[in-house]
Amino acid sequence: MTAIITPIDNGTAKGLQVGDRILISGRIYCGRDAVLPRICRLIGTGELDRCGIDLRGAVIFHTAVSQAGVGPTSSNKLEIEQSFGPLSRAGVKLHLGKGKISDSTVRILEENNSVYAVIPPVTALLENNTMERRLVAFPELGMEAFYELTVREYPAIIAAAQGASIY
Questions:
Q1: Residue 90 vs residues 1, 2, 60, 139: alpha-carbon distances, Å
Q2: Domain boundaries defined on the chain
Q3: Residues 42-87: pLDDT tens digits?
Q4: What is the chain's alpha carbon radius of gyration, rounded to the nearest angstrom?
Q5: DSSP string of 17-74, one letter each residue
Q6: DSSP state of 52
């Protein structure tokens, strides 16, 4: 297992290969189909800084945040998969979710030195490794708002990197 501490630098992202098992620690952002299009609009209008969101070297976990815990949602939902390009260009190095993503998304990741990892749907384990949660933006979306978590050793497997995919 490779320990990954956020924020992730370019060299670390470049060194990750399909099949690598990683443990993620540090701050990560959480968002799914309701909020990621809004974050992409903020990127497009240059207003992301206004929300105090710095995506350089960031991890985006495709999940909602509730009192029951966190668990991955399918990353190939249209609104989520369309966010990979804008988020990666804004600095996200690791997209974290579940499921197969398209070949065109794998290419977008390669072009932006970003990777995609799948995380097992083990809500209880992830809750034990979630140290802190903070609502960052769009509180009206409830558990689907944009959150920042501080995590310790979230387990994941690199599923798409350097133009290759495990699917």
A1: 27, 25, 12, 22
A2: 2-165
A3: 999 999 988 899 999 999 999 999 887 888 999 999 999 999 999 9
A4: 14
A5: -TT-EEEEEEEEEE--TTTHHHHHHHHHHT-GGGGT---TT-EEE----BTTB----B
A6: T
CATH (one of 3.40.50.720, 3.20.130.10, 2.60.120.460, 3.40.50.300) for 2-165: 3.20.130.10
Structure tokens at 157: 């497997």
The tokens of 14 are what? 């470049």
> How far separated are the first and last CA of the chain, in Å rounded?
21
pTM of the model: 0.88
> Residue 60: which of 106, 114, 100 has the closest Cα?
114
* Entry field: residues in the chain: 167
